[in-house]
Amino acid sequence: MGRNIHDIFVIGGGINGCGIARDAVGRGYSVALAEMNDFASGTSSGATKLIHGGLRYLEHYEFRLVRESLMEREILWAMAPHIIWPLRFVLPYHKGGIRPAWLIRLGLFLYDHLGGRKLLPPTSVLDMRRDPAGKPLKALFSKAFEYSDGWVDDARMVVLNARDAADKGALVMPRTKVVSARRENGLWHIETTDTVSGRTDSYQARMLVNAAGPWVDHVIRSAFGQNEAHHVRLVQGSHIVVKKKFDDVRAYFFQNPDNRIIFAIPYEGDFTLIGTTDRDYTADPRDVRISEEETVYLCNAASEYFKEPVRPEDIVWTYSAVRPLYDDGASKAQEATRDYVLKLEGEGDAAPLLNVFGGKLTTYRRLSEHALEKIGAAIGAKGAPWTAKSHLPGGDFPVRGYEAQVDKLRRRYSFLADPLARRLVRRYGTKAELLLGNASGIDDLGRLFGGDLYEAEVTYLVEHEWARHAEDVLWRRTKDGLRLSKEQAKSLEEYMAAMPAMAG
Length: 504
Hints:
Elements: E1 5-11, H1 15-26, E2 31-34, E3 50-51, H2 63-79, E4 84-93, H3 101-113, E5 124-127, E6 143-152, H4 154-167, E7 171-173, E8 176-184, E9 187-194, E10 200-210, H5 216-222, E11 232-243, E12 251-255, E13 261-267, E14 271-275, E15 279-280, H6 292-303, E16 315-326, E17 341-345, E18 353-357, H7 364-379, H8 402-412, H9 418-428, H10 432-436, E19 448-450, E20 453-454, H11 455-465, H12 470-477, H13 486-497
Parallel strand pairs: 1-2, 1-10, 2-7, 4-12, 10-18
Antiparallel strand pairs: 3-6, 4-6, 5-6, 8-9, 9-10, 11-14, 11-15, 11-16, 12-13, 13-14, 17-18, 19-20
Helix pairs in contact: 1-4, 1-7, 8-9
């Protein structure tokens, strides 16, 4: 059946689609968004999970992208201090290495001064023979540079953008596939299918935004019937997670002999995240998996630095995703631009279409603002930019207020163990109190599924964050999959199958 005419219909529930929907509805546009799977089920949950300027992009002269990224770090940190926080990176150096010391110093000087850094500390030089950061590394590395960037829970950033868009009035529809979109009488007529129930629906919109990530060309070909869509270069990035390799809270930036870099990052308290790879990908993005070649590459690259080698048998989890880079004709996957490109189509009375190519987590907010500039030019401007001073749900506390927020939660819920209180604030910020409600003891949180995942948290994720399956909870809304056994995960799936889908 037909629906009211929306100003904007967004295809894609990754960071770009959810960011555009949130920005647009906050300016007064009527917005609908359809995602064929769960939010952040593709590229947006497969990142290295950094809010960073992209130090290595300086080598490819992407100064605009780096400057914009550096400026965004502290803006995003203030927007969501529960899921984003500063992280110091240690870049080990030895004489005769891949890049000379003067080049690294120059890059870090630009890094410190290009993007209006205010709160993050500047670059420093470390004596690795004395600094604790040198302890897990080979003695070859006697010197290092230390600089600032940020960490983000990538999948949570996506779902919080979707949640805020819905709270502001957007129609947000996960597990809804757009099967066709056609222009008629100055409007887009969009047909969708609910991938769970099979129900079909139709919508009308004045403008369509294609933010389908790796599937952006597929949408152009299948939904719009344009067979000559070849705008995206798919590049696979894979990561491995191993048991904790070092106790330091800082991360490492490793330079490889092939001129590529990898990170080794403290992860979820008990683990180390190592990645990423960069290689062209031509298969279906739904089938992306880490290859044996990539696994060996990451283990060998990290082992060049750590005293204790990283072996395939040390791996407890892997993840892999496909980055939809704009195809600029670069010869190597790692040289393809990480910048985003927005292409507006539709002349005269034809309903406009905005295709979104590329992008990265750090610049999603600015990408959204630039998209709204094009949307305003196409269908009329509404409202002014507003997201720079906003908060994502749960992030309405001071940028350096995480510890105080943990203390506040533990004062109200004295039965919470410190690790659980910390995890709840990291995931939900001020919304942790909504999750816990009137609980006066640990038994009030209901069934324990494993680790410290209780029924109350699962219920919250179903009711407020569109979680429907165990995978949604264990690997996107949280990372509790690292702590639950296969039997416990199966038990959670059975429990959730009996629950009604409630988020809206």
